[in-house]
# Entry
Amino acid sequence: MTQKIDATCFHRMIHGGARLLQQNEEQVNALNVFPVPDGDTGTNMNLTLSSGVREMDKVSSSTRVGDLAEALSKGLLMGARGNSGVILSQLFRGFAKAVSEKETIDARDLAEAFKKGVDMAYKAVMKPVEGTILTVSREAADRGMIRSRQTDDPAEVMAEVLSGAQQSLEKTPQLLPILAETNVVDAGGQGLVYILEGFLAALRGEGISEEAGGDLSAPEAERSLAAVAHGETAQSRIDPATIEHGYCTEFIIRLQGRRTFDEGDFREEMGAFGDSLLVVADEGLVKVHIHSERPGDALNFAQEFGDLTNIKIENMREQHAQWAGTEAPAKREGAAPAEPAVKEQKPYGIVAVASGDGIVEMFRSLGAEAVIEGGQTMNPSTEDIVKAIQDLSADHVFVLPNNKNIFMAAEQAAELVDVPVTVLPTRTVLQGLTALIAFDPEAEAERNREKMEEALKGVLCGEVTYAVRDSQVNGHSIKEGDFLGIFEGKIETVGGSLIATSRDLLQKMLARGGDLVTILYGKDVTDAQVKELSDFLERNYPDVESEIHYGGQPLYFFLITIE
# Structure
């Protein structure tokens, strides 16, 4: 008799995959090719899959597999972050379509669903690159299809899918030279392997530890800090309209000495960002829980002390509404909620993604009404971008992702709204600002797209950051803590001095020509360092006009464009 996967088993499979990915999030992040502080593939995949699981959990596990898969797909689609998250959401979107009418699925159904998912993911990527999660998923699905013709046991098909994924992952360095050079496998592919391992363990009835990665030995950390802060029956006592700080925010800091950590001082400064603050520090790790109305500010501050992991941000007003079966209220201002303002319909709206108070203000001053806090290490979800678009009340919306890892989420958001959206191919915030300057509110949408994309062609982009680990990239021997000068996505210079590395990068960039240099300096740059770089330009390039502005961005000391 043919064995079947019912809804309860499917539910267990998805949870198993999500749990194993969560536990190995940092291992996936560590596979980032460049040793810069934005290797967030694991984080993006974890947050994406977690969003799908939360949506799936709203559906009774006693229902059909098709219903669970549909809910999972919806959650993944809206929660997708980064290119890896978007591809993952498309894999399960195709999977869900394949099993949409199924109450249970057998071995052949399982294999065909994986194959359908791969087809959907490839269609979503304009220029598929082999040696990535796409290759791993395709070769895994092909192996599953072959095995499904030989067995009626879904676990045997799942084992073959996993085996195919593992073998494909090992070959990714042969397909992508940069992986071979840095001696790593593809991060997205590794994340998928962890998910499939969790699926197989659940199918075989094997247990997966409930504990997530980033374990702390302090007794308080054995329970969720959110549970400690909220109390077991807090939901029944809260009037959601009185919630002043609406986002429950949890994360772990891996202390790296960028700023000396003192628990008392840290707690006092972090307290300025909200309430219900709990801080647990132990052995180079700090776990933080806080309720904040602007969680991005809290995260930016925390990054001064080290790298962040296990980030979780939840909308408490929405959570309470789901618990109570009501609509989520707006934040209360004063004694009673204000009447929602009627927004005037506008011909155009601009959505930009940016991080850093100076940069955010620049975008707003140039006409971007919606600025989503995010960028490196903080990729917004598809849902974040959808909400920003919908809130604009515009006939046509232009989206400036300002990061190559946000393109796919922006394009996915554009497909989910009922207004025309143009996603501009801006890879940096300076490209975004350049495109926005070229925007003409009186021109037709297509003409604006042409003008903004044309403006990008004459812009060369560079950035200065630091290495988070030892590595060998592009012929450079890099040590953790070295300063990195990156030009058009390639590491061009490495050094032990911030200013010397920045000068070297500027010389390499100006060797390509250009008569205008624009520099945005980050939150950790001193006035003396800004002056030193400005004096260097004036002395050595008197014929080149230069502009230096405060950007306030984290992680990247200088963002540079040359036109």
Observations:
- The two ends are 69 Å apart (CA to CA).
- The chain is about 45% helix and 20% strand.
- The first helix runs from residue 7 to 23.
